[in-house]
Design goal:
- With 184 residues, the protein is α+β, with helices and mostly antiparallel strands.
- The protein has 8 helices and 4 strands.
- The chain folds into 3 domains: 59 residues, no CATH class; 35 residues; 58 residues, no CATH class.
- Strand 3 and strand 4 form a beta hairpin.
- Helix 1 packs antiparallel against helix 2, helix 5 packs antiparallel against helix 6 and helix 6 runs antiparallel to helix 7.
Amino acid sequence: MNTQMTYTAFLDEQCLASGPLVDVATAIQQHANQSNATVLIFNDQTGKQIDLDISGSKQDIQQRYAEHPETVKKVGRPKLGVISREITLQQRHWDWLDQQSSSASAVIRKLIDKELNDPNSESNKMLAKQATDRFMSAMLGNMPNYEEATRALYQGNKEVFLDLIRDYPKDIYQHILKLSAYAF
């Protein structure tokens, strides 16, 4: 599974830009200078629509949306991206964790990473379905076959799903295929 955050911007039915947030924001700003048309931006991992601030220069946008390490001192191991939170488990879970050769936190991180990297896991299939559904709802809520395609998506019926979406606009169709790649 792709764990790098990517975004896609659409101008009506046309894909305007796709990739890291800074690249999408820069492309939208360039387009905004030429047109006042509304652009919709989506997080590719969640399917959620987002808003961007494209004011200022190209350098302002690059500073605003470039991925850079946090400079604020945090408790724990911030260079590794570790965030401290409380977790509640049953005694048998703690007993099992205590028997492992690594710390409880390390074991839990490994289990989560294993799940995240398995595109065939049930949780990742559901996440892909939800992302696809959110995108389709925003872009195609009034299109023919939308509701039937959504039902086929959640039922895991790939053939019916693909048949129902085949006549959608090309860029939207391609993006749905990308989002639903791990849904079935």
